């Protein structure tokens, strides 16, 4: 059995440069000491980790399991409505043979380019039968829960099978990464970012390209993984590619790896070529839509100054954690779904101590790996601070590297705060490697062992997640659920709720998702919650550029004051409705406002002033739009 330091030896047959305790070189050489024997399977440990991951996922999402169709995530109900719509639309594309990357159901008459939006195409298609069976809200909750479980389990698989020898070490690292503050924060309705299980699979696919003679097979597998990741979480794929590229460059530049790098380069680049070919063929059409199709845009409508990480956030605690429940939370994130760091000072200190222990015990080759891991974490942490530094809510005038990179294509579409998501896996790897080392070479004194246990507890226990906040969602009107709307809208015709459907009033997409999932037929709506062109400088914006009619409705619903209506505003409003080809306008008794309460009475008075007295049909007020 080799010494503990040989756990960090790098073997050319291993899938990655971060070590593999299971590799067994056929012939030892001065550059590669004999590795430890193959680790015996431990199904009980595997089962415990899977059960722990499942229990935590159900705990985090427990507020919605009481009533998937009647409850919604409080702080991000608009994104939940969007993803539910995407799931319903995905099923509709399967059964009706429609384009999954572009739709005219929203934003009449221009449509929406879903390739430049977070379209979760694979999820929508794969889970289409479930969506038709139990409805979009319950399918959304199922995918969200499975995402959390799969992320922890995938990281456990990568750690336990390829990186460390201790199942305990793999479990600690995997459960931290799977339920770190960023993952729990994005569990507030982000089906794309909670699909963190893609990252360890991508890492495995990249590192196995080093194997001689596996360029074609490895490239095909990685190409399929890239296409899968693009279709679920394109921004996450981009961040993963940047992080892996930086890590490999830092690792390869170390003098101890030069010979190994030269030997692996032909196979590695050959595999990357096959990867690019496979992924390029599969993604040719969505990539064309993304960069050259209609309704495209460059960059996003989100301000990078706002959506950047506060430096102090790294030492703070998140809202949905045990520490946050105890009152130690802060409001340094732009919103509750973007707490992308929030590790707390104890964990930062523990990470530094772990790095020091590993560096002290490791041989030269693994120190290069530690340097690459640390360098990657530092670079992405600094980039996450955005164009200008901010400390504890106060913006400084110090220009940071992201301020220079923000004008580059593709990068200008990324939110800098999300770059902090790369730091959590690095910390998880350090925790796993440290536990592995402590089990291989336990401290000589019990007091030292107790200090390590106490350090892990003080750092990790405050970060234990608490359930997401949920609330009762507004019911879908009987006018929609009964299919009565079909008597007032021609096949494929347009209706609009009041206020119009946007991110802050997402009811229209919920109604449309219900109709699609229950095979009632299609009705189209103007506006919608999506990213499209129209922002400053050619950037994107949420929803279409406002027109007179929707601006008046938004003003009434938001302020509770009916605006003054003139002949000119009536004429312009009718022109807007005709532009959208709207046949009926409807107002529910209760309208959901994602950011503020909607005054339904003010909206009804405004619509009546513009369109005349409404009809009462089922449980909605209905106005028929006169022909042009």
UniProtKB/TrEMBL annotation:
Residues 100-403 form the DUF6311 domain. The chain crosses the membrane at residues 47-67, 114-133, 140-158, 164-184, 191-207, 219-252, 264-288, 341-360, 367-386, 415-435, 447-465. Coiled coil: none annotated. InterPro entries: DUF6311. The keyword Magnesium does not apply. Signal peptide: none annotated. Keywords: Membrane, Transmembrane, Transmembrane helix. This is Predicted membrane protein (DUF2079). It comes from Micromonospora viridifaciens. The lineage of its organism: Bacteria, Bacillati, Actinomycetota, Actinomycetes, Micromonosporales.
């Amino acid at each position: 059995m080799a010494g503990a330091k040989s756990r960090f030896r790098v073997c050319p047959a291993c899938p990655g440069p971060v070590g593999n305790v299971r590799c067994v070189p056929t012939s030892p050489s001065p550059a590669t000491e004999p590795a430890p024997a193959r680790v015996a399977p431990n199904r009980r440990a595997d089962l415990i980790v899977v059960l722990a991951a499942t229990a935590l996922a159900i705990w985090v999402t427990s507020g919605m399991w009481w009533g998937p169709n009647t409850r919604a995530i409080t702080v991000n109900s608009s994104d939940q409505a969007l993803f539910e719509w995407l799931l319903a639309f995905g099923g509709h594309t399967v059964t009706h043979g429609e384009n999954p990357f572009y739709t005219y159901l929203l934003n009449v008459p221009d449509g929406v380019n879903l390739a430049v939006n977070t379209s979760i195409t694979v999820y929508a298609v794969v889970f289409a039968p479930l969506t038709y069976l139990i409805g979009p809200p319950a399918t959304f909750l199922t995918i969200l829960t499975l995402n959390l479980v799969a992320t922890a389990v995938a990281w456990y698989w990568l750690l336990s099978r390829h990186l460390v020898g201790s199942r305990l070490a793999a479990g600690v690292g995997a459960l931290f990464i799977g339920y770190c503050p960023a993952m729990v924060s994005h569990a507030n309705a982000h089906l794309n970012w909670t699909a963190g299980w893609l990252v360890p699979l991508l890492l495995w696919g990249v590192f196995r390209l080093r194997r001689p003679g596996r360029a074609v097979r490895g490239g095909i597998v990685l190409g399929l993984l890239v296409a899968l990741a693009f279709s679920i979480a394109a921004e996450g794929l981009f961040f993963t590619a940047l992080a892996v590229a930086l890590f490999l460059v830092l690792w390869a530049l170390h003098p101890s790896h030069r010979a190994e790098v030269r030997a692996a380069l032909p196979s590695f680049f050959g595999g990357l070529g096959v990867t690019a070919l496979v992924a390029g063929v599969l993604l040719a059409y969505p990539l064309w839509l993304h960069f050259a199709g209609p309704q495209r845009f460059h960059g996003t409508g989100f301000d990078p100054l706002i959506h950047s990480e506060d430096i102090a956030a790294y030492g703070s605690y998140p809202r949905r954690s045990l520490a946050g429940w105890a009152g130690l939370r802060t409001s340094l994130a732009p919103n509750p779904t973007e707490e992308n760091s929030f590790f707390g000072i104890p964990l930062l200190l523990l990470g530094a101590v772990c790095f020091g222990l590993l560096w002290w015990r490791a041989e030269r080759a693994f120190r290069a790996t530690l340097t690459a891991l640390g360098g990657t974490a530092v670079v992405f942490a600094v980039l996450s601070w955005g164009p200008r530094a901010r400390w504890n809510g106060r913006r400084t005038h110090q220009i940071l590297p992201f301020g220079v990179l923000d004008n580059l294509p593709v990068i200008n579409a990324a939110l800098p705060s999300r770059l902090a998501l790369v730091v959590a896996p690095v910390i998880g790897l350090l925790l796993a490697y440290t536990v592995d080392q402590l089990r291989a070479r336990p401290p000589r004194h019990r007091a030292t062992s107790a200090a390590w246990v106490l350090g892990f507890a003080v750092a990790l226990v405050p970060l234990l997640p608490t359930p997401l906040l949920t609330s009762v969602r507004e019911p879908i009107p009987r006018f929609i659920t009964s299919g009565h709307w079909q008597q007032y809208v021609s096949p494929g015709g347009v209706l609009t709720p009041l206020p119009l459907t946007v991110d802050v009033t997402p009811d229209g997409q919920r109604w449309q998702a219900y109709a699609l999932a229950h095979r009632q037929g299609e009705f189209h709506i103007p506006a919608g919650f999506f990213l499209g062109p129209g922002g400053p400088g050619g950037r994107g914006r949420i929803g279409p550029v406002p027109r007179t009619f929707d601006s008046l409705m938004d003003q009434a619903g938001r302020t509770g004051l009916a605006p003054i209506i003139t002949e000119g505003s009536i004429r312009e409003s009718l022109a807007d409705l005709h532009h959208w080809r709207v046949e009926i306008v409807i107002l529910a008794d209760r309208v959901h406002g994602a950011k503020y309460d909607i005054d339904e009475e003010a909206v009804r008075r405004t619509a009546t002033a513009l369109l005349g007295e409404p009809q009462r049909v089922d449980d909605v007020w209905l106005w028929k739009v006169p022909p042009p």
